[in-house]
Amino acid sequence: xxxxxxxxxVPKEVRGKARQEYLATTRExxxxxxxxxxxxxxxxxxxxAANLLGMDRYAFDQxxxxxxxxxxxxxxxxLDKEFQVVGELAKKLSSLHS
Length: 98
Hints:
mainly alpha
């Protein structure tokens, strides 16, 4: 993914070490919120989002929970269809073992 620069305006009252911390924190929050939005919009998978943020899937799921976002980025209709398919497969497997 190509990198782009983002300009961050720091209040002039913030100086020295606090300025560096302000910039670092702002960069991290911006990155986190951007990746969460990409995931929420279905533009990246959970695994890829976790990778972009330098964390494993478990940590990403924790982050989703913290922001009250679902780890499932499917629509209710897509989930209903998945449940139907699983139900049909379960019936077929059950009939094979009877």
